[in-house]
Amino acid sequence: MPSIKQVKKQLRVPVAVAGAVSRVFGLAVKSRFGKHRRWPEQQVLIDEPLALAEERTHRLRRIYTNAMRDSWDGHEVFRAAVHKHGGIQLSREKREALAHLMSMLMWGELAAWYVSAELAEQLEDLDARMAASSQVFDEARHFYVLRDYVALLHVPVPPLDPYFQAAVRSLLSAEDLTLKLFAMQVLAEGTAQSIFGFLAESNVEPVLSELLPLIEKDEARHVGLGIMHLPERLAKLEAKECQRIAAHTETIGDMFAATQVRMIPYYRTLDLDPRELFRRADRLLHGLGQKLGNVPGTDQAYFRTIDPASPAYQQNLDFVLPPEGVTPRGGTAWLYRVVELGARAMGARTIAA
Ligand SMILES: [Fe+2]
Ligand SMILES: [Fe+2]
Q: What is the DSSP secondary-structure string of 166-178?
């Protein structure tokens, strides 16, 4: 009769095999319920060779190709710009004001990095996924370049505006990719592109002026991904779902607008006219909204913007943002008070007007 030791020795291999089999099956069962349970997705396959398919050059596919062609070395461009202009030569007051604008944009880049990585992983359309993949590199570069720039201002990094923070957190937490494509790729990227263009043209600071045209060009591609891919996703949705996405995006847009209202004193400290920025952003968002048409089941456009070319625009702008030197009164004063009270309720410090 074999001893217990001999039996154990004989069973060692079968027990190890049984253990491995049970672990393999356990993992296999778990993988059927995980985040990637549908991998690999068959829709990424094509019916004909890629080279032939490429003959029909897809506009969306060109975003990836253009991003590779126009890629730039952020560290090198930054170093060269600092060397050329001998650093940032602004007064402390102006550097502090610029820190508010640039740190907001920097945090926006970080959020855009997260969202583009998510889109690169999860969008079903392969061309859109490739465009998002190239955007991940762009946003990473934008983030570290702006982080270096904020450090070069040599002032404390200001706390993030609470409206901006809440809007971005809401966007990042959303599971819906169509909402992300809309609120980040079209609304946020479009707004960012306007701000970058505005700051570049104003020539507010020479080092920044070397960086911004490159960033702005990248941002235009990112808006391109949103505006080219969003309509086909929206077309597949029920009217109610489109209305929900439009309402959520509109609220995020209102929060971005509140942030810009709170930034007015900083633009003015930098001798910039924020009314010009509002006009520029409205023009761009209005144009993008026209491309998207109306929310199904309503007569409302996806973006509630007024065309800067329309006669009503000036009156509207005067209400939201009176010219410099004009004291806000009536509804405008009330609007500013509400925006500031809301910000303080969310923990912000008061901004000196
Ligand atoms: Fe960016
Ligand atoms: Fe971007």
A: HHHHHHHH---HH
Lowest mean pLDDT among 33-47, 78-92, 137-151, 197-211: 33-47
- Gap from CA of 322 to ligand 1 centroid (Å): 30
| 188, amino acid identity | A
Ligand nearest to the CA of 211: 1
pTM of the full structure: 0.85
Which of these, 170, 178, 192, lies nearest to 226 by C-alpha position? 178
Cis? peptide before 40, omega within 30° of 0: yes
Give, for 259, the enclosing helix (H) or strand (E): helix 239-269
User: In this predicted model, what pLDDT tens digit does every residue of 283-315 receive, in sequence order?
Assistant: 999 999 988 888 888 888 888 788 899 988 998
The dihedral through the CA atoms of 117, 121, 122, 128 has a sign that is positive
- Range in 133-137, 207-211, 310-314 the model is least confident about: 310-314
The structural domains of the chain, with segments of one domain joined by +, span: 54-345
Count CB-CB contacts under 10 A for residue 175: 8
The answer to whether the CB of 195 falls within 8 A of the CB of 58 is no
Average pLDDT over residues 134-159: 95
The CATH number of the domain covering residues in 54-345: 1.10.620.20
Q: Which residues, chain by chain, have CB under 5 Å from ion ligand 2?
A: 112, 189, 219, 222
